[in-house]
Amino acid sequence: MKFWILIFGLAYVGLLLLASLKSYKKGRSVEDFMLAGSSIGIILGVLTYAAALFSTFTFLGMPDFFRRHGVGAWIFLAVSDGAMVFFIVWFGYKIRRKVGELGFKGVAGMISTCYGNKWAGYTIFLTAFLFLIPYVGIQIQGIAIFMVAAFPDFIPSWGWAVLIVSVMLIYSEIGGLKAIVYSDAIQGLLLLTVLWIIGINCLNDFGGLGAMFDRVEKDNVALLSTPGPEGLFTPQFFIASMIAIVMIPVTQPQLTTRLVVMKSMKSMHLMAVAVGAFAILVITPTIFIGMYGVSFLQDTLAGLPTAQQAGTFFRETFLYRQPGMIAALALVGLIAAGLSTTNAQIFALGSELRGLLPYDEKTVLRITKIGIFIFALIALIFSELIKDQIAMLARVSFAGTALMGPMILLGILSDRKISAFIIVASFAGLVVFLLSLAGVVPSTVLGIRMDLLLFLVLSVVALGGYLTGKKVLD
Q: I want to staple 322 with a disulfide (CB 3.0 to 4.6 A). Which of 66, 93, 326, 401 is the partner?
């Protein structure tokens, strides 16, 4: 395996070097560095959006999610992602029209302009920071788990984490967003290839698709229906999760930016449809991998703590039980996934910071680069604090940022002068959600999940703000 890791690793590094050199421009503007010249075509658009959406979470979180909670995860993801694709087509049209009027310096900066209130931007930036940092930590920790498994006596997991973040910072500083888009394209293709190879290998061990479900039915029949063996997939979970995922293009700045930088409206629409197809293709093999863990790793995982189960499951399915060449390709694919997603999200935080800075272009670019370094350092520290629950942490990240959806949509869609009350309500909703995660306030109220309840309340506040707002004269 180590021989193939060297071969695939050198090829990947070579492609990264080529991409960074191709993206580098001496004396480039902030717009070139942060928005890649707003000239991304359909193929790069599909791969960069998909890579930012499906990442280390898909490699590590989704197979384990299927293993623990069953095929209800398919409903959770397939229906939600399908709804998101239709929403992208509509929202992409709306935001690109708004960007044509106001320009784009990150979602926070644009919403501050829409409301004429800097606190709207500060609230959005704070939310992105609080929930993207843990998601970035997931990527870093995921790679570290694999690297320790492949080279157990080389360096500890924190050493791999430092190395990963260092490579990411160097790469993004050289090439900017354009380099990240190229690395996303590499990662998207690797992700799809590796998951299907390993998924088919797992399916073959069952003896086919029908045999897989027959075997799982005998091992744990609760995995084949909702709410699953741990009772996760309740109707409220599905509804709240779908809202969180549908809101991703609105509230996850790394994905909003990718809608804005497409070179034309037509390219953006075609990209959205293609992302839906990519989603189905990339999620399907994770079912086979997850079910493999249920039926073939029961004895291996039995008695292990939850934190150790996740890591052992990853190592067994992706490394130890695969041919050396496939295991090496999986390892390099995971590194690519982690690097591109980490880059995209840390870079997005830098873009959001840029929109709040009232300085000249040169100063803004310098502060933004420093901000990217600081955000990466914080994510590095957080990555050492998480060892399991990768899929659930990702969902919390989506749910937390989704709370800003009503305020963002109101700012983009409204042609009226809106009261600042929606800003205050959104900030209050953020605080309440954080307190619910910490266990300070209940996670349900009158039987309704807190994240779902908060989103509904903020949606009503946004609608009320629109109806009571004063029409702006042309």
A: 326
Angle at Cα 129 formed by Cα 127 and Cα 135, nearest 5°?
Answer: 105
Q: Is residue 341 part of a domain?
A: yes
pLDDT tens digit sequence for 333-345: 878 877 777 777 7
439 inside domain: no
Name the domain count of the chain: 1
**Angle, CA of 237, 89 and 390, to the nearest 5°:** 35
- Domain-embedded: residue 474: no
Q: What is the dihedral of CA 15, 342, 167, 313, to 10 degrees?
A: -90
Task: Sort 359 into a burial class: Cβ within 10 Å, 0-12 / 13-18 / 19+.
Answer: exposed
Mean pLDDT of 225-235: 87
User: φ and ψ at 302, to 5 degrees?
Assistant: -60, 130
CA dist 414 and 417 (Å) reads 8
84: domain CATH number is 1.20.1730.10
Q: What is the mean pLDDT of residues 234-240?
A: 85
422, part of any domain: no
Q: Is 449 helix (H, G, I), strand (E, B) or coil?
A: strand
Rounded to whole angstroms, the Cα distance separating 420 from 470 reads 13
Residue (of 400, 339, 290, 340) closest to 50 by Cα position: 340
